[in-house]
UniProtKB/TrEMBL annotation, chains A, B, C, D:
It holds the Pfam family GFO_IDH_MocA. One of its GO terms (molecular function) is nucleotide binding. It comes from Alteraurantiacibacter aquimixticola. Transmembrane segments: none annotated. Residues 178-303 form the GFO/IDH/MocA-like oxidoreductase domain. The keyword Ligase does not apply. This is Gfo/Idh/MocA family oxidoreductase.
Amino acid sequence: MSRREVLAAGMAAAGAASAAEALAQQAEGQPLLGDPALPEVPGQRMRWAIVGLGTFAVGQVIPGFADARHSRMTAFVSGNPEKARDLGARYGVSRFYDYENFDDIAQDDEIDCVYIVLPVGLHAEYTIRALEAGKHVLCEKPMCNTVEEAEAMVAAAEAANRQLGVAYRVHFEPNNLDAQRRIAAGELGTMRFISADHGFSADPNWPPHKWRLEKLLAGGGSMFDIGIYGMNTSLMMLPGDRVVSVSGTYSTPAGDDRFTEVEGAIEYRLRMASGISIQGSSSYCYSPYVSRQRYFGSTGSIEMRPATTYYDNSIELEAGGAPRTFRAGNPISQFSAQLDGFSQAARTNTPHRTPGAMGLRDMRLIEALYASADQGGAVVEVDIPV
Amino acid sequence: MSRREVLAAGMAAAGAASAAEALAQQAEGQPLLGDPALPEVPGQRMRWAIVGLGTFAVGQVIPGFADARHSRMTAFVSGNPEKARDLGARYGVSRFYDYENFDDIAQDDEIDCVYIVLPVGLHAEYTIRALEAGKHVLCEKPMCNTVEEAEAMVAAAEAANRQLGVAYRVHFEPNNLDAQRRIAAGELGTMRFISADHGFSADPNWPPHKWRLEKLLAGGGSMFDIGIYGMNTSLMMLPGDRVVSVSGTYSTPAGDDRFTEVEGAIEYRLRMASGISIQGSSSYCYSPYVSRQRYFGSTGSIEMRPATTYYDNSIELEAGGAPRTFRAGNPISQFSAQLDGFSQAARTNTPHRTPGAMGLRDMRLIEALYASADQGGAVVEVDIPV
Amino acid sequence: MSRREVLAAGMAAAGAASAAEALAQQAEGQPLLGDPALPEVPGQRMRWAIVGLGTFAVGQVIPGFADARHSRMTAFVSGNPEKARDLGARYGVSRFYDYENFDDIAQDDEIDCVYIVLPVGLHAEYTIRALEAGKHVLCEKPMCNTVEEAEAMVAAAEAANRQLGVAYRVHFEPNNLDAQRRIAAGELGTMRFISADHGFSADPNWPPHKWRLEKLLAGGGSMFDIGIYGMNTSLMMLPGDRVVSVSGTYSTPAGDDRFTEVEGAIEYRLRMASGISIQGSSSYCYSPYVSRQRYFGSTGSIEMRPATTYYDNSIELEAGGAPRTFRAGNPISQFSAQLDGFSQAARTNTPHRTPGAMGLRDMRLIEALYASADQGGAVVEVDIPV
Amino acid sequence: MSRREVLAAGMAAAGAASAAEALAQQAEGQPLLGDPALPEVPGQRMRWAIVGLGTFAVGQVIPGFADARHSRMTAFVSGNPEKARDLGARYGVSRFYDYENFDDIAQDDEIDCVYIVLPVGLHAEYTIRALEAGKHVLCEKPMCNTVEEAEAMVAAAEAANRQLGVAYRVHFEPNNLDAQRRIAAGELGTMRFISADHGFSADPNWPPHKWRLEKLLAGGGSMFDIGIYGMNTSLMMLPGDRVVSVSGTYSTPAGDDRFTEVEGAIEYRLRMASGISIQGSSSYCYSPYVSRQRYFGSTGSIEMRPATTYYDNSIELEAGGAPRTFRAGNPISQFSAQLDGFSQAARTNTPHRTPGAMGLRDMRLIEALYASADQGGAVVEVDIPV
């Protein structure tokens, strides 16, 4: 049987061509124009410069642009020109800066947004320089080393009339957004208590961990790096509340020589104006990786375990019946969604979902927490709105 | 076909009788004598009086004797003679006392052990009277209303040369024993932190909950009743350690009129001499029921969720690979095992696994915790060995 | 402070005695008489003889009486008199028979029910002898070796006007009853398909497994012993349907010398008059233990994994939202509930929930299945109501 | 405090610039060149034409290119030019064809590979035309309508000396690859049995489902569309084995007017030369979505639930201890990995992991299965290597 005969058998009397046309009409007929789920035409997207090409930038931030719909990369800033050019070739980025000529980005019209992915100790300087260059800035968490730096960063954004965001990606993670929505909708009744435990085992011989153990570069210890997820995510679920006091204690293991400059472990309690508490722990001494949030309400509870990882978060809801587990379909989207969220904030010059002010708030809370722990857990009163 | 023919077909040439004999030899041949898994001959078991025939006694304690191997009931003490006699007929118990003639048990040779299942406010009095009557006493948790009562109970046991136990059934629950064994064996490396959340929603209209809201009868609030599971179970995993300070805060909902006498909710932190902390919450305002323990170590972690319920506890272990869930086969045994454990302690007049001293320790810890919470969370230093 | 002072402090103004009385009234006040959850007075319960004291009898059947409410043991029948007397002393059983004088039970008024726990090849003979002795008989599963034996057993029960039950304990297991109830209530919509896989690894050197590999004693292979759970439990969910055809294939591993007399593994498909199929597998070559049932419906599905074990079954329901897991509170009850169920059937001389006729049905199905497998999987038509 | 002062405080004595340089060296220092995890330079990647812009193409295939490293799109073939141009603008695709001028791709040097994403009834024609145009072709599953079509497609690839692949994405899904690796490594011992259930509820009013119910366009019913996942994935775990017989039965609900042309539901059994069976079900009448694979071995078992979905698959392994759940980190990769896998096959002109021959094999198996079901489940002997 010839190919023509086979096809004739397959497509029967109908000529293949006209059947295909009919099918095209049928299967391809849905409207597309303006579909918000589709990527924007590249030439219209916001243009980003990435500052710092370390492990996190190469492994998470840059790949996150692949699925972004309103954001594209146009420039790399790096002290390693060979690496920058290699990555540029792979990702279609052709504009390069280093830490010497960084301020020249002010003259570069192909950059709208700057993403600071440097070690924490450099966040303040480069954020402020980028804002002064007239760019919108998304700065990695934690925001910076001190409350004073954070205040200066916020002031710089205001002076420049540009948006400053802190990259709290959890606010764009679909499972956490689902928890936030359920809590706001009253699925747990009244919130009664939040528990948050986060940590991992810091490896002083691995470069991405090594600088986290140096105070000048990291700003602080486990609370700065990993505990901040617990605190920030917990507060994400309590809009409109205020922190009225803080207490904490260190549990850094005695004699562990990783922790000569920053704390290895800390426990904390935040008291809220609404009368409830958040209790958590943060550690560079847990293994395997810990990332757990629990929300206990008057009529239901949510457990997230893990809660704040890159891909594998989920919600377990107990409320009126057997527990149910929810897992958002496509878990990669938090990185891309964060980029697009900031692009839209920058485009409209309106505040990002996790603005500089939120980063400043967290710096104040951690500062109070360290003050308490330095006094062995004494209650430190504050008045910090969520 | 006649029945004989059928059987002949089934059993073939071999005569059924001799086959049965052969089978009896084969299938029934394992030795039994002295098998510790089998129940002891009733006449040799320790004999118990149950004091108080409320919901918990009828629903859990008394049925627990069905599967006990070294314990049997011989007497009921109750203010409701009709109920006592009805239960007696059903369970083969024929000796009855009331709260007036209770001290007459001293003359009753058919009672070795007394189980106090009264409201907390009566524990001290009836425990001491039973000890003075020469009986060994297992007292329900929490032990009593105050540290002073606990001290008097321990002193009475010593004076009478009888065993006093507090019914911390979790120490006989197979999943918690498995966790204890794994932790002691170093499966988590060095313990770094413990988190413990426990609670339920107290219903003031349900008699078994109603008395728990009255200070005179309950001794305290949620911490006395449900939070104590978290604290006691956490300490069960830290043998040889000491509590060096305690802090706590109340989260009793403002305006909730269930809580005019006792606290509705409390958070706590215990600092240990080993340098680690236990953080927990206890609430009469959670729903659904919360019973969660987590143990975070340097190389592994255990999550128990639920941790301390009657039937459904399990362990999830994360250490060196994917998480694994373990669930003890026959979960009913904690009630029966506790009875048998105390029977053996009484028989040999050696300390029970959860002795009066442990109950006294917990009363001291809760007293310190309340003192801290009364001061808004101030650190209260103690020196209390586990 | 004296003991009196301590107590006075604890109980305040109220005299302890009157407080205790008040409490007794409050905490002990619920009515009891006639509460169906409480055990019946022993003298009124149905009285059982246990025939065969092998591993399963000693490990599961006899302990099951501890929590039974309408059943008690009065006699043991065994070829091992020493073992019988030892167990008798422990469990309060004082009447003993052996396989020689077994028929004398006809003259024993202290026996109402007889539980046959012998190897399968002896079921028919001892069941019929017990029925002829005027006793009601609960016979372990599988019912017997052949359809002819099963027919003779059913006929003997009819002739004696006594109840005959087959010990399909799953019909008394709370999680399976929950599945049955949900399916009947339409929670899955219309049933579409059932999948059932069951098996374990038979150990020819362990006595309780050894006789299962001998055709004369076991009747058949894995399908008789473990696959029958899958088939019987699946049919439990399809009341009113009929089996219209059966097909099966053997997967006994070539050269596995455990399986010279009985099949090691078999797969089966049952076609129902309603148009749906049940597909399952049964194996003596799986490890670890497999016990899985799945029910797929037009609007929901249930997965039970494990489905038919002694203690640890659960239901996972997917219907209209995220999956939910249900686990019955006290999982030990299937053994006790089965005893009490049969006691009630015997007392009222009405059919047991899993009567002899159900055992006969299953023998017919397995016979047809073996006939199909002997022909390499050819469809064997039957007409057997559920 | 001025910005300079703030920064000076933050960075202490070290000048910020030199610290940044040091950090760049430290954090950006890892080598990159040749890292296989990074995307290839776009100009060197294989270039793809997508044929058919329906729901699956727009929702899964096209977005899959975002994370591909060796593949990029250069052309769209569609009967809807407006849609094609809109998508082209968004994704940087500027070459367009329709079903009339499709054969002109032969002259287009910017196309290396063609992905056929049309309804099944058009697969054969467009695959053969693309091969005749000198392009490598990845064809969506199922391969085509009939064995004869499949044979013609394979012959056309051979004649053209081009690669033909069938888009069995599961062979690139990390969790299934993990299962395949574990099984090959003997983690389950010897394979004993495979169970596979797959299905969903077909909605005749939803365009992407509608054509699946028409025989001319879909080729067959649920087995063609969804059951094929179960059969193909099961065989993926049995390399080197042969199918020796097939049997199946239809369970299409009587009177369901969705199924006038194709079967709604079918059950199947494949017997393998190794002596084991695969049993499965396939249905357009299950809800919610069912995708379950289980592998039972002599020393272990794997359950995948779901097994073959886009994002949420996982493995539960039971072997030597408590069950363990494994979930691949970044679950989006199966679409991208498949594209890159075929790009490499095309670049080197060596067979794809799931070649046309595999699609032909599956067409033969389904044809035999339908033949069996047409005869009520009779065994149909075949001899088809995996």
